Amino acid sequence: MKPAEISGIGEFSGQEVTLKGWVYNMRSSGKLLFLQMRDGTGIIQCIIEKAVVGDEQFELASGLTQESSLAVTGMVKEDSRAPGGYEMGVSSFEIYQIAEPYPITPKDHGSTFLMDNRHLWLRSRRQNAILKAWSVSSGISSITGDSSSATRLSSRRTPVKGRPLSSRRSTSAIRHTSRRADSSTTKRPRQLSARSTPSARPSGRRSRRRGAT
């Protein structure tokens, strides 16, 4: 079976191909499952019919959760109502892993919750589009080379938990300043001046005594 990517699925219109990816969303309507699948290059709608895959497979597909990984095989057909203009009629599928309940749902979430789950929030359409635009506008391709463009991959800079770069720089500057301060305040051995050095001549009292005798 021909492996394919969602971004170039239009080239396989009318052909049977295999797609591998993750469940983006899914809804049911009686004996039909409308599965939205993503593979990193795009999203496509896959139609799973109970009459085609059988009762057992249909029941298994009904248990799929968001971000579950799987491979689907079926016929690609053009449909203007489907996301991306194409959809797949699934003839068979293979589940690799059932994901745990995904914390980010279509309902509204607070900013604190979304930032705590930022690594998952980046998978949403809006955040993904923002990062793609940022990657192009910031000239990341000039840093990473042209290989990412050839493979249709894009660079990502996800948040790193810990001190920001600015604080690390300020900390290093503080350390450097403190080292200079420590070196300037280090106690040096006291140098005796000429006045403070003991005189080699005898005291006046001893001289007078010698003169008297």
Name the CATH class of the domain at 2-97: Mainly Beta
Number of strands: 6
The percentage of residues in β strands lies in 15-25%
Average predicted confidence as pLDDT: 74
SS class: alpha/beta
Distance between the termini: 130 Å
Numbering strands along the chain, what is their spatial order in the largest sheet? 2-3-4-6-5
* Poorly predicted residue ranges: 141-150, 164-174
Briefly characterize the structure.
This protein is of the alpha/beta class and 213 residues long. It has helices at 50-53, 55-62, 111-116, 118-121, 125-137, 140-144, 147-150, 165-184, 204-212; strands spanning 2-3, 16-29, 32-38, 43-49, 69-78, 86-97. The chain has a 5-stranded mixed beta barrel.
Structure report:
This protein has 213 residues and is α/β, with parallel strands linked by helices. Among the domains are: 2-97, OB fold (Dihydrolipoamide Acetyltransferase, E2P) (Beta Barrel), CATH 2.40.50; 111-150, no CATH class. It contains nine helices and six strands, in the order ββββααββααααααα. A five-stranded mixed beta barrel has the order 2-3-4-6-5. The protein is globular and about 45 Å long. The protein starts with a strand and ends with a helix.
